[in-house]
Amino acid sequence: MSTNNQQLLKGSLSVIILKLLEDREKMYGYEITQKVKELTAGDMTITEGALYPALHKLEAEGLLTTETQVVEGRVRKYYSLTKDGHKQAASRISELTAFVENLQTLLNLKPSF
Amino acid sequence: MSTNNQQLLKGSLSVIILKLLEDREKMYGYEITQKVKELTAGDMTITEGALYPALHKLEAEGLLTTETQVVEGRVRKYYSLTKDGHKQAASRISELTAFVENLQTLLNLKPSF
DNA sequence: GAGTATACCTCCAAATCTTAGGTATAGTTT
DNA sequence: AAACTATACCTAAGATTTGGAGGTATACTC
Q1: Is A49 near strand D, with its CB below 7 A from some atom of it?
Q2: Is B112 part of a structural domain of the chain?
Q3: Which nucleotides on strand D sit less than 7 A from a protein beta carbon?
Q4: Are B1 and A102 in contact (CB under 8 A)?
């Protein structure tokens, strides 16, 4: 994926966060950036300038709660889904999935359709 | 797809335009809105407030050329790909396709990955 | 005459992202 | 010891994109 492809992330970052947290008890910010990089073989990079504001917004919306721990001398802020967060996660993930399917329909279009 | 799903379009609108025009000689704005609605069974709606600025930007970038016709008393502004537009279309479509595949990898994730 | 479909357009506000910067600890390399 | 890399948090400024609302106009149907 080329460098400016990260701009195509728009709108999907918060759903990616919710999905990752749905599959795990809790994660911290830096861990999320590394996990996305790992799962996409380095293709997608979550910039911190996008991630932290997104996490704070989800927390402000009541979908995430935080818990701070000190591990090996460094502070970690763990995020996990609230009850409402779980509901919203399911809903937003299925919306994005449906959107992605529509997008693929459009992109796989053969001529004269 | 729910109503606010149209907000997930971000970043992909211009690629959708390029893809539609790659498969057809030329299209006009209103036709694009209808075609997208048709191809996605009404799930996706391209708003005019997003479409026309996007078309004008692609034209300003030299990827599209225009040709105005009067059909049944109404003005139609047809857009078609320039030579450079064809090149860019291929490139941007494959980028978005790769992005969508990564997104699906993330969304289809099973627990404890 | 009113409403609907077709067909173009712009402006403002909201949301999201990128870039660039800042702080700090721990370990490794020179 | 200094420099670099990895870990780990954060913010601010600016650009881009989008949605919503509005505007104009023609043709057809009720």
Answers
A1: yes
A2: no
A3: 7-13, 17-23, 25-28
A4: yes
Residue B103 lies in a domain: yes
CATH, residue B32:
1.10.10.10
pTM of this structure: 0.89
Q: Is residue A40 part of a domain?
A: yes
Cα atoms in the 13 Å half-sphere on the side-chain side of A66 = 15
Q: Hey, what are B94's tokens? A: 């494959």
- Largest Cα–Cα distance in chain B? 62
Rounded CA-CA distance A99/A94 in Å is 9
Check CB contact under 8 Å for B15 and A95. Answer: no
- Domain carrying residue B42: 3-107
pLDDT in tens, A80-93: 999 999 999 999 99
Please list every residue in chain A whose beta carbon sits closer than 8 Å to the beta carbon of residue B40. 102, 105-106
Least confident stretch, A92-101, B2-11, B56-65, B66-75: B2-11
What is the number of structural domains in chain A? 1
Element (H, E) at B16: helix B13-22
Mapping DSSP onto H, E and C, the string for chain A reads: CCHHHHHHHCCCHHHHHHHHHHHCCCEEHHHHHHHHHHHCCCCCCCCHHHHHHHHHHHHHCCCEEEEEEEECCEEEEEEEECHHHHHHHHHHHHHHHHHHHHHHHHHCCCCCC
Q: Is residue A113 part of a domain?
A: no
